[in-house]
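Why does residue order matter? Because the sequence determines the fold. Keep that principle in mind as you read this record.
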Amino acid sequence: MRTVDSCKSIIFVTLEPIARQMAGPAIRAFELGLALSDEVSVTVFTPHKIPDDVLRELKERRNLPDTFQLKGGLSKSALYKLAGEHDAIFIQANVLKPYPGLAAMGKYLTVDLYDPYLFSILVQYQNSDVAANASYRLMHKVLEQHMVACDFSVCASERQRDYWLGRYCALGRINPDMYSFDPSMRKLIDVIPFGLQEGKPLRRGKGAKGNIEGIGVEDKLLLWGGGIWDWFDPLTVIRAAARASESIANLRLFFMGMKSPNPQVPLMDMAVKAKELAKELKVLNRIVFFHEEWTPYDDRVNFLLDADIGVSAHFDLPETRFSFRTRLLDYFWANLPVLTTGGDQLAELIESHNAGRALDYGDVDGWVRAIGELLNDPKRAEQCRQGSRALAENFVWSNAAEPLRQFLRQPHHLPEYRKVTMPSFVERAQAVYARGGKDLVVKRSKQIIEDWIK
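Structure:
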């Protein structure tokens, strides 16, 4: 297996489209790659064709350097050839399913575990036992394949890292050899949060106010800044907005995207339920508005700068505890007061930095009070804006990428993975002898024999 003193090039592989409309995984691959391109040559690959006009726009708007290349729509063999020209490979935790050969190249392989997929699957397919079981088992094995193959892995938070360390331990990837290699396990998995672009957000065009019919320039806007997935709770926010609008006449709630930009991801049930509830409460297109299409990545800033409050809500689920709500980072970037549900690590930061409120699950009354507090008390709203501003400084991509930058400077291959098996009779006896000599072997002989027979 070839080793190098440092990696001079890396290819990021995402299965999501690189386009005007991009979901979190594509944004993460693009932005991390761009952050590293000041030091190494970077290629970002997607199996989806990237339109020429999109490439031109990205190069112009983001001033992409010559060390940063975007490639899309290539065949599997062409991807393998391209990957073979790089020292390191960065993949998200579903990439080896269509491209298993990437793990067999002997490159320095990093796996991105920022999304705890399994918990999302439990929610998404809860109404179909067949789909739930098949999808869960498939993704469980796919994740295992990635965790066994990697030389390094990253996740989005220290809480997520605790979860993944537990999974690595159960898998047998954490063993005496790994401990000898790195007792801290930072060479196995470290933290790269989702990040933010450098600098202040700058308006590029029209957002919601004065542009979406029914949302006026002077209206007070609550912004739901991402998709409506099944593990989110837009229903509580819609009910709260409907009630709060009785005393705040110009209140509006705007959902920035209904459906994923990935054509392979269908419209989720919760998105349908959200719209149905707005109709039932007679607030659809009056108080509550839905942007049917996904907002282009570079245009989201216009909606963020229009907003008065950034909102997000979810349920009491394991997915919540280990999530990292990327839309909340955009709220920090735009210095917005934030209303969200508690239970995750970012909600705790919002509370501790006085950037908004983390409310109880399904607490419509609490949401109504919190909305009124922020919209009727400019001093309180400004305090929250300052809290968001302070949080934003902690999440720029250049800082977030540092663990991967260090890995590329001093790359390593992890100790070979060996599946955990019961020790043989001889190994058990040798282990007991090493701890206490012949006397302990004699004393434990009955136990050793019983363990071996079992």
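The domain at 9-195+398-409 is CATH 3.40.50.2000 (Rossmann fold).
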